[in-house]
Write a structure and sequence with these properties.
Order of helices and strands: HHHHEEHH
Structural class: mainly alpha
Helix content: over 70%
Distance between the termini: 65 Å
Strand content: under 5%
Number of helices: 6
């Protein structure tokens, strides 16, 4: 009985290693990865242009959710235009300009603060979006969909294959909890 029980546990352990995150859980991981990368990019850009560290983003922690949501929008809605660069560019420029405008408007309406202002930029709309950044979103979408996302997806799948499923779900729950707490605390800070 002991030998049979040990063998059954070994098979069960192997089966648990084969369990993969569902699509929703994987999207949550992508959100956190790209929100962190966006924060890192913004921080490095500010460091390079201003010469010192500047806290970037809405949250206390090292995440810029707009980049996480943007990456998810690209993955969910524009991945079908992979290697169709003109279509991808046009759709991304329009969608992300509208998204950037709505987020800017929403943050301004809720907190009476501007996290970015393109007033001095050529062809801007209420300082919330500009033609330069609309163009940039199109280029970024091409680079993201054709290169960055496939590379990251492959690497993430490899990393996840080395981490037990229970640990993966625990990490997702932990990050999600911290994100929710940070969002609430940040909202309270900006509402006061």
């Amino acid at each position: 009985m002991g030998k049979h029980s040990t063998r059954k546990q070994l098979i069960l352990t192997k089966d648990l290693r084969k369990i993969r995150l569902n699509r929703f859980q994987t999207y949550i991981l992508y959100f956190f990865i790209f929100a962190f990368m966006g924060w890192l990019m913004e921080t490095l850009y500010a460091l390079f242009t201003l010469g010192h560290f500047v806290k970037r983003g809405f949250l206390y922690g090292p995440l810029c959710p707009i980049y996480g949501y943007g990456a998810l929008m690209l993955i969910l809605f524009l991945d079908k235009y992979k290697h169709k660069n003109l279509q991808l560019f046009i759709h991304a420029a329009i969608i992300f300009s509208a998204f950037e405008y709505l987020v800017s408007f929403g943050l301004d309406a809720l907190f009476s603060m501007h996290w970015w202002d393109y007033t001095g930029e050529f062809m801007n709309l209420n300082g919330r979006i500009s033609i330069f950044y609309s163009f940039a979103w199109g280029i970024i979408a091409i680079l993201f969909i054709n290169h960055a996302y496939p590379f990251l997806k492959k690497k993430l799948n490899w990393i996840l294959s080395k981490i037990p499923y229970m640990m993966q779900t625990t990490i997702i729950k932990l990050f999600s909890s911290i994100f929710i707490i940070d969002t609430i605390a940040s909202c309270i800070r900006y509402l006061n």
